[in-house]
Amino acid sequence: MVNQKKSKVIEKGRLTELLDKLTQGYHLIAPVQAKDVSFRRVESGSEVTLDYINSVLSPKNAFFSQTETLFRFFRDDNRGFQIEPCVEADREQVIFGIRPCDARSLRLMDMVFNGQYRDSYYLDKREKTTLIGLACFEPDETCFCPTFGIDPASGEDVDILFSDIGDRYLVEASTEKGAALLDKFAGFFVEPRGDEEQLRKARKAGLARMKKLDVSAIADKMAPLYGGDYWDSIGLKCLGCGICTYLCPTCHCFDIGDVNLDEGGGRFRCWDSCMFPEFTLMASGENPRPNRKTRIQQRFFHKLKYFYDRNGELACVGCGRCIRYCPVNIDISQIIEEVASGKAGND
Amino acid sequence: MTENIYLPRMATIQSMRPETIDITTFRVTIDGSDETERFEYKSGQFAEVSVPGVGEAPISISSSPARPGAIEFSIRRVGELTNALHELKPGDKIGIRGPFGNFFPLEEMEGRNLLIIGGGIGLAPLRSVILNVFDNRAKYGKIDIIYGARSPQDLVFTSEYEEWRKVDNTRLCLTVDRGDEKWQGNVGLVPTFLKELHPSPENTTSITCGPPIMIKFVIEALNEMGFPSEHIVTTLERRMKCGVGKCGRCNIGSKYVCLDGPVFTLKQLKEIPSD
Asked: Which of A45, A180, B2, B136 is 20 to 30 A from A24, alpha carbon to alpha carbon?
């Protein structure tokens, strides 16, 4: 639990000014209302909107860019190359307004990009980022984050949590990094008046109605379904558009490609999707996942079994994005329910 | 700044030896003093080989770590990158990342007989084992090598067979799917030839690499002959990009072929989905 002494309050009227100040010392990434709400780098506090349930895309792009140059190369004569790694400018960034589900997804991504081989492109950005979360009191009907032990009103995976309690935000630092940032901007924050906890409790009342599925033995229950008929019907429905993977805050698959110009070129990586046939197509022409059934099966097995086998966590945070945007209504929460209840195996 | 796992080291092609019409063995040194020696690999591992501007692909290492001085890759011309590699000349530069993946359990196999079964370009990683055990000949029992290709022209490392046959207690048995007027050896598929030769499973570890369909039937034949699943060792192939378990495409079940493989025993394979 957050130390009560660290709790502060900021009046709503001062938020824009605080965000303005943040843009002076940091790259500030915050939700912006365009056609939809999305996280972008902002130059001033007035660009930021806080009127959203959640952004269309999670802010994973701030760490794992949709497209990112790994290095450039220059031909030094007919035969040689000079390689120049692309390291983003040293900068501290602040993400303001990340939801607790998306903050948890970063913890899951850390497990992929860290480890025996460290992915410095991702990890450097992660180290240089302070996460300011925004507690979620009015989730969407497709949200089911409590399934994965996420409290949408908690600051467990962020550095600082802002909770909207009416005329002000309750501000709590949950890490040293967060506390340091609050200290730096101490002039914006005042002491709590005393009724904050009560106000927060009232706002949290609706969260008790959120969908919480039983995933206690889901990985074990998935195992016997491999190759089964259950995935045939889902595979027939799937269009293979890949929107689920692009919107998913825990999907981390990428492609690596080269760009060739006269004097040199570069190597880049970009998001890729297990929904696409080329994802596993080998030069020999062989494809171990030749149809939508095997590809959709891979997606759900990765989320609900393989990632768990490797990392001890399920690779879903219940943000509901894939459910909201799937054009044919493939619903991971329904699949979880059917697997958990044993219905999936009886089709 | 931590080490950047995506940056290739520049390497120089020292020589290119044509093996078949579409397979060439590239002998490569990594630029910079001692860099080639510091590329510490084991038989069965692979490297990400790249031509800047074209791309990168995982290629198994066909040389033996017991013979330092250069690293060899035997590469079939089959896709965009391998086509570009075949267009290069000695002295040209390529990129190398690695070594990656696990390796053949040569230490665990000490004191045992080896049955090495290859098909086509699949002999490339097995050649690393073959040369490696030849250099440590006393540590192993009998060595039987069974190798086949589509035609006599498709056999690789033919210039080395004479040397291999001279090694103590070693047998090299060749087969081709279709012979020609000069071919005097066996004609038939590798799994069939294997059954005819009927090697004993006693104190023997089998290592196989080749096209998936060959591996499938070789494993069936080995099962029939009584080889226990922990002594049937094979390699798997999947499309890879990063080589380090991040990009997410080479998994079979919970295993990443790039990290946990490419070498698996049949016993391990029985525990993962069969896709």
From this structure: B2
